Protein: Adenylate kinase/UMP-CMP kinase protein
Organism: Dioscorea alata
Amino acid sequence: LAREPLKVMISGAPASGKGTQCEMIVEKYGLVHISTGDLLRAEVSSGSEVGMKAKEYMESGRLVPDEVVTEMVIARLSQPDAKEKGWLLDGYPRSPAQAQSLEKLKIRPDVFIILDVPDEILIDRCVGRRLDPLTGKIYHLKNFPPETEDISARLITRSDDTEEKVKTRLETYKKNAEVIFSTYMDLLTKVDGNRPKEAIFEEIDSLLQRICEGKLAPVKSI
Ligand code: AP5
């Protein structure tokens, strides 16, 4: 039975755990993970034209201009693998204009997941975060320390993970959240993100299972 591919949006404040949950979702569901943060960081390190435009915004914790990000996301969503396997959009849409760009193209998810984490936890998560440039894996000095000395030696810190910049990022998130959520009102699911990552994934997993089953159910004829 052919099934419509799964389409998921995941949102949440900086360091609410989007990337961490996406790693687990992708492993189980094989969706194409489209993280605008990761795509932009790759553009910055390659020194591309997009990267040069994005750099100063990202380093100060502000949003990159809508048109730069939107073009990148639409291009990625149009690739054959995203159409075949389904997609997991992480960190987009992040402004009312971005949400409208997708609405105009009639690109809607099956579900819009919001990871809910109290502000005071977010700062600590950002400041302790480390990334493995080789595998892209996300660590935390206290919560998820690296498995080996070798990994530990190559870990890097994001330049926007200082307390001051996290506060700017959080303000921007809060300013835009309501309008974006109202665009996806009928598809929202809020998940408590202040729990062990496995418990959070369990809840997301059963949500996605139910959606997949719904897609498989035969259409009842009237
Ligand atoms: P982006 O990379 O999207 O950053 P963000 O939204 O601020 O989210 P983070 O990546 O900081 O956090 P996360 O929720 O993925 O958490 P993680 O899993 O890593 O964007 C960066 C910048 O790019 C923006 O500021 C902007 O400039 C630009 N940009 C991106 N998208 C844009 C757009 N659409 N428009 C315009 N500009 C855009 O977890 C965080 C830490 O917590 C880790 O150390 C992790 O190990 C730990 N952790 C995770 N889960 C748990 C748990 N359950 N318990 C304990 N610790 C945990």
